């Protein structure tokens, strides 16, 4: 029972997380209906929403099934309690009848006086006392069993109510999912008419992302070379030559792996780390050196850890990127509209370093975030808290 209750709580926590994520998706991706999204952007957002809602339905079903099992256990417990209570009441009734028939003090006195010796009289006196105590104990047991039965009944009713609420919510979620899947099919039908155009759009987006990543990797290689030259080593050495202060900073950064704050106050991960097939154009592959996080318009970008601004990257066909160094680790914050810091500035954890760019045509506000160990990319989901 404890194991089931623990599992039920875990499922409830996960269900609430998914509900919050759907609220954030609606707020950040679907709130501004006056803006006309591209077909690609619209289907990507819708796919993400459908996946999250499908997970919510799955978790809610698991909860309902677990509640069904718990209800079955409680019903058996209630049946057993009722049988125990009935047995106690019958035994107690028999004792009361027997006590009533032998209630006179004279009967008790004669019972004692008819003893053959003092030891037998003492034992009979103890028996009378034990029998009286047993009567009281049976009365208390009846009270306890009655209270247990009441608690079990209350718990069972609550579980049945909870199950009905889950079923109702799941039915509503299923209905909404069908609406979203219909929208998905309609957009996909439109996209399939001109796959080549959309493939080119995907390719162009990938090229823009790769261009920024190449610039970041170039800057990191330069930083490695500078650190080795400063330390009197060959500039061609692959790893950093860190000062004691930089070593401590890097060690502290690693010690906080999995606990780093998100670079925005709230957001939804639209694109995960790594190579993955495009959800729409199957022939296209997305290569992601980090994560793409959709957030609210005007959202500020915050440093995920103490460090130093190594560079502000500004390209002709793109928005600014802030590169922050943490010893031999770097964090990159891409697609900013405003930058609050400059090269060489010391920054602290959760310090605002800029503002995320909002596309005026689509209303999308998306931050691209990456983590590097020297020039090797890292999966931000392994570093940021609950990503």
From TrEMBL:
Residues 1-28, 71-98, 156-222 form a coiled coil. It comes from the Bacteria. Signal peptide: none annotated. Residues 288-380 form the M23ase beta-sheet core domain. Pfam families: Peptidase_M23. Keywords: Coiled coil, Hydrolase, Signal. GO terms for molecular function: metalloendopeptidase activity. Its EC number is 3.4.24.-. PANTHER family: L-ALA--D-GLU ENDOPEPTIDASE, PEPTIDASE-RELATED. This is Peptidase, M23 family. It comes from Formosa agariphila (strain DSM 15362 / KCTC 12365 / LMG 23005 / KMM 3901 / M-2Alg 35-1). The lineage of its organism: Bacteria, Pseudomonadati, Bacteroidota, Flavobacteriia, Flavobacteriales.
């Amino acid at each position: 029972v404890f194991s089931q209750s623990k599992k039920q709580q875990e499922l409830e926590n996960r269900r609430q997380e998914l509900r919050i994520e759907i609220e954030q998706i609606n707020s950040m991706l679907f709130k501004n209906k006056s803006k006309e999204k591209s077909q690609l952007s619209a289907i990507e957002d819708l796919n993400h929403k459908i996946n999250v809602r499908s997970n919510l339905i799955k978790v809610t079903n698991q909860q309902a099934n677990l509640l069904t099992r718990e209800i079955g256990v409680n019903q058996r417990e209630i049946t057993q309690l009722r049988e125990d209570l009935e047995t106690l009441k019958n035994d107690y009734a028999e004792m009361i009848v027997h006590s009533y028939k032998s209630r006179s003090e004279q009967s008790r006195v004669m019972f004692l006086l008819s003893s053959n010796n003092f030891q037998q009289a003492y034992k009979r006196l103890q028996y009378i006392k034990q029998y009286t105590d047993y009567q009281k104990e049976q009365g208390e047991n009846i009270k306890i069993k009655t209270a247990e039965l009441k608690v079990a009944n209350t718990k069972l009713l609550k579980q049945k109510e909870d199950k009905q609420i889950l079923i109702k919510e799941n039915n509503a979620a299923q209905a909404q999912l069908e609406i979203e899947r219909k929208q998905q099919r309609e957009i996909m039908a439109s996209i399939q008419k001109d796959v080549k155009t959309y493939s080119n759009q995907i390719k162009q987006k990938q090229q823009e992302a790769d261009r920024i990543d190449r610039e970041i990797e170039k800057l990191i290689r330069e930083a490695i070379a500078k650190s080795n030259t400063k330390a009197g080593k060959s500039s061609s050495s692959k790893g950093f030559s860190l000062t004691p202060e930089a070593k401590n900073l890097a060690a502290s950064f690693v010690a906080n792996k999995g606990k780093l704050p998100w670079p925005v106050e709230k957001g939804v991960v639209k694109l995960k780390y790594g190579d993955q097939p495009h959800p729409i154009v199957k022939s296209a592959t997305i290569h992601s050196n980090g994560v793409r996080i959709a957030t609210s318009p005007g959202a500020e970008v915050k440093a995920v850890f103490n460090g130093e601004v190594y560079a502000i990257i500004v390209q002709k066909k793109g928005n600014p990127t802030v590169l922050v160094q943490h010893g031999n680790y770097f964090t990159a914050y891409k697609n900013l509209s405003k930058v609050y810091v400059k090269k060489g500035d010391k920054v602290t954890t959760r310090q605002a370093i800029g503002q995320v760019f909002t596309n005026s045509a689509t209303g999308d506000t998306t931050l691209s975030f990456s983590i590097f160990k020297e020039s090797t990319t890292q999966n931000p989901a392994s570093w940021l808290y609950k990503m």
